[in-house]
Specification:
The protein is mostly helical and about 200 residues long. It is globular and about 40 Å long.
């Protein structure tokens, strides 16, 4: 019964602290931490980075990898903005490096959630595994990951300002250029190369 409840809570995108309280006595004391860092404390009662990844994967699969920005739960708006560790772009340089993303160990100082969600969705949307082609890698994958994070920032900013979020598919990677241009957020190649070298 507990296992079934855990699966349902994961699939429903219920925040981790709430999941754990629901699975234990005294669940009336539910609380929603304002900052994800509050429950990414190693050894803490809610520290479970792999459950966060399972939750993201379950949400992607349930929606067939079509994620409408206007309906994206805030838990994912926040967790998918998690800051990747320094040198993250090396994992998108070659197919072999990208495959290694999914074997990276999660720690409080090495949070790969955002990178793993992007790489998984990018590969599926481009039929890279089904077609026997390489996993996402190279300059295009790096650029799309940066744009993915920019769009999440815009979704968060509009939600916090009480403004309507425009309807678009967050996983339509090939549509990012047009979408960001509509928002007036265009990044030149020379700016991108500079930022890559700086990190």
């Amino acid at each position: 019964m507990v296992g079934l409840l855990r699966e349902l809570l994961t699939d429903m995108a219920v925040p981790l602290p709430v999941q754990y309280e629901l699975l234990h006595p005294g669940y009336a004391s539910l609380h929603y931490p304002a900052d994800r860092k509050q429950y990414r404390i190693y050894g803490g009662p809610y520290y479970d980075p792999y459950q966060e990844i399972r939750q993201s994967v379950a949400y992607l699969r349930r929606n067939n990898f079509v994620i409408r920005a206007e309906h994206l739960p805030m838990i994912f708006v926040h967790t998918w903005q998690s800051e990747p560790p320094p040198g993250w772009y090396h994992y998108l340089t070659t197919p072999d490096d990208t495959d290694a993303i999914f074997r990276l160990r999660e720690t409080p100082r090495h949070d790969h959630l955002s990178l793993k969600v992007f790489a998984y969705a990018y590969a599926v949307r481009h039929d890279m595994w089904a077609g026997g082609r390489a996993t996402p890698s190279g300059a295009d994958a790096i650029r799309r990951f940066r744009q993915f994070r920019q769009l999440l920032e815009m979704i968060a900013a509009r939600r916090e300002a009480g403004e309507r979020v425009k309807s678009f598919d967050l996983m339509d990677f090939d549509g990012y250029d047009k979408l960001l241009k509509q928002y007036g957020w265009v990044q030149r190649p020379d700016e991108m190369n500079t930022r890559l070298c700086d990190e």
